[in-house]
């Protein structure tokens, strides 16, 4: 009887770990952005997060997700827009 308790615990723990890893992988996949495109912004070349998001929603509807990328020091910050996969 004593040998069954560790075996059962190990089985339950293994199933739990598999379920948790599957849930984490699913959550990470939802964060991916598909159809990502560069959106030209103002002439100064700087990206403002709110403007980027607004232009993305204008292009893709309410599912559009806009994000600024790059470094402000080099003035190469750009807006990338896409929809969640």
Automatic annotation (TrEMBL):
Belongs to the DEFL family. Its main location: secreted. This is Defensin-like protein 149. GO terms for cellular component: extracellular region. It is found in: Secreted. Keywords: Antimicrobial, Disulfide bond, Fungicide, Plant defense, Secreted, Signal. One of its GO terms (biological process) is defense response to fungus. The keyword Iron does not apply. Residues 1-27 form the signal peptide. The keyword Hydrolase does not apply. InterPro entries: DEFL. It comes from Raphanus sativus (Radish).
């Amino acid at each position: 009887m004593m040998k069954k308790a560790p075996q059962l615990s190990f089985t339950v723990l293994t199933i739990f770990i598999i379920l948790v890893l599957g849930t984490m992988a699913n959550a990470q996949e939802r964060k991916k952005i598909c159809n990502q495109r560069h959106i030209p912004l103002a002439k100064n070349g700087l990206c403002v997060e709110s403007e980027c998001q607004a232009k993305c929603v204008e292009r893709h509807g309410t599912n559009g997700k806009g994000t600024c990328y790059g470094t402000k020091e080099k003035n190469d910050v750009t807006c990338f827009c896409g929809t969640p996969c």
